[in-house]
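stage 2 :: seqdesign
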């Protein structure tokens, strides 16, 4: 017969039963609280209201040489659009966009540097507005829900600034002035660039890495191809994308896989470093590159340069 054990672990009838300990549960940080996007919807509302205000200022029936050709004149009155052979995007004149704060190189060189930012909130036409706002709601809202407004907001604005700066540098290089450039495309391309750098710097936390990278590269390539359409300011798209790509390494860095804050770490457990070494390297190099590029671009643009003017506008 087996030997009886009369201790606290003795089972029924004095027979000892061994119950193995279950392995400790894996350590996971607590789930973050859900975040509701508000900044990107606010940008949407501001852009739409400014477009309405732009059309009010444009006042096609009063300012256009042939008022009867204004689109939807009887229905919209002073909010009616220019004829399509003047603006195929269904919108105002380039002179109105300039008055509202559109980007124009020689005006920036004369000290109106604020146009590098004001042009982000204007649109050349209804088609232009709809295309950008759809992208804003599909891309911007999702990113804000993931990373919060205090990261996505700066990326949006600074990328738009980078797009405007690249647009001025392109005009300066090609000796073209008189071009009025408007639109949020540079800022939106900045969000795409930030998505790409976020995937690269946070590589360790993604499961289907190659699939995610390939899908994002296809989206980026398709959007950059839009810049090949005549009348589209591709330089602003490229400048915005590069700015967002660099900013993503700085603002969208996330803890490496398996990291748990000391507040949620059981006693005796060893904590992983918050970030991997290459994340810090990407951050430093990107920050230096962004500052150097902006300093160089501003030093080139904010100098007077006499060139022959010709009129047009780009988006």
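stage 2 :: out
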């Amino acid at each position: 017969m087996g030997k009886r054990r009369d201790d606290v672990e003795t089972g029924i009838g004095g027979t000892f039963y061994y119950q193995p300990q279950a392995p400790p549960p894996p350590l996971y940080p607590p789930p973050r609280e859900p975040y509701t996007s508000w900044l990107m919807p606010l940008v949407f509302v501001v852009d739409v209201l400014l477009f309405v205000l732009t059309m009010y200022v444009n006042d096609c029936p009063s300012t256009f040489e042939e008022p009867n050709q204004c689109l939807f004149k009887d229905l919209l009155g002073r909010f009616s659009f220019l004829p399509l052979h003047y603006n195929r995007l269904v919108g105002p004149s380039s002179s109105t966009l300039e008055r509202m704060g559109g980007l124009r190189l020689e005006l920036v060189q004369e000290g109106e540097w604020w146009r590098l930012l004001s042009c982000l909130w204007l649109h050349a036409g209804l088609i232009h507005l709809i295309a950008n706002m759809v992208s804003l709601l599909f891309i911007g809202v999702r990113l804000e829900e993931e990373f919060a407004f205090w990261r996505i907001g700066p990326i949006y604005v600074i990328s738009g600034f980078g797009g405007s700066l690249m647009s001025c540098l392109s005009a300066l290089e090609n000796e073209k002035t008189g071009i009025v450039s408007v639109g949020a495309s540079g800022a939106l391309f900045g969000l795409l660039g930030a998505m790409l750098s976020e995937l690269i710097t946070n590589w360790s936390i993604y499961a289907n890495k190659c699939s995610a990278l390939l899908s994002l590269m296809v989206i980026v390539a398709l959007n950059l191809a839009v810049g090949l359409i005549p009348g589209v300011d591709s330089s602003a798209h490229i400048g915005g994308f590069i700015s967002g790509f660099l900013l993503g390494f700085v603002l969208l860095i996330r803890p490496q896989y398996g990291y748990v804050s000391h507040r949620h770490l059981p006693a005796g457990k060893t904590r992983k470093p918050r970030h991997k070494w290459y994340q810090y390297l990407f951050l430093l190099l990107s920050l230096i590159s962004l500052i150097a590029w902006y300093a160089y671009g501003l030093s080139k643009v904010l100098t007077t340069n006499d060139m022959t003017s010709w009129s047009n506008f780009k988006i």
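stage 3 :: structure notes
- Residues 172 and 301 are 7 Å apart (CA to CA).
- The first strand starts at residue 177 and ends at 181.
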